Amino acid sequence: MINESDSEVTRSQHAAGANMPRLYGDLSSWWPVLSAPEDYGEYASFYRKTIVAACSSAPQTLLELGSGGGNNASHLKAFFTMTLVDLSPGMLGVSRSLNPECEHIQGDMRSIRLGRLFDAVFIEDAIAYMTTEHDLHRAIETAFIHCRPGGAALFCPDYIGETFRSSTSHGGHDVAGRGMRYLEWDWDPDPTDTTHITDFAYLLRDEKGEVRCEYDRHVLGLFKCEDWLRVISDVCFRAQMVQPEDRKSESGAPLFLGIKQGL
Asked: Pick from 73, 110, 200, 217: CA 20 to 30 A from residue 34's CA?
């Protein structure tokens, strides 16, 4: 198991925070305008059913690592007692407004240790910010350490190496007098490494009707199915892949389960 001293954890979080995309830093207050909770209902329902089916008994507590602005939690909290962990203070603030009944903790999914077990652990697309196999291992190990025997962890990458293709998309919302429209461009400058790039252009309209444009780059991990299954197994989970047809996904990427054997 990987252990870090308190000072090492602090340094790690500081370094990670300094390298955050702007969406999780100075632009985090715009998250509810970019991505609305109602957009997550169908996905959250599928995640819940997948988690419940993978656990040996009905899960009551759920730890979400990389919980972001809390859009998934806004649907899942009706079924689980949730603890939400994210590295970004700004995103935790957004989530607290949306999910005041949930416990919120600032922390890095690679190193946080809460000293308690949960019936299940969930990491949605925030797992993509693990850009090396070492960091992916650390995040999945964190899930294993916090998962009770008989429970399960669900990991939901947007893309896998076998099926990644360059693409563009757009979206945005109008909320409380503000508006955002964005253009998203996913591309891979080096197919031989374990990362790809997502570039965003944001058009932001404030309450006064003034519009400005901002740019944001996200460097994201890109691993093959065999790598996912091997790393999940390496931390002593029983690894399982959920096929793409079982999930509504534009990229067709599968989900990955880690099932923790019972005592």
From this structure: 110
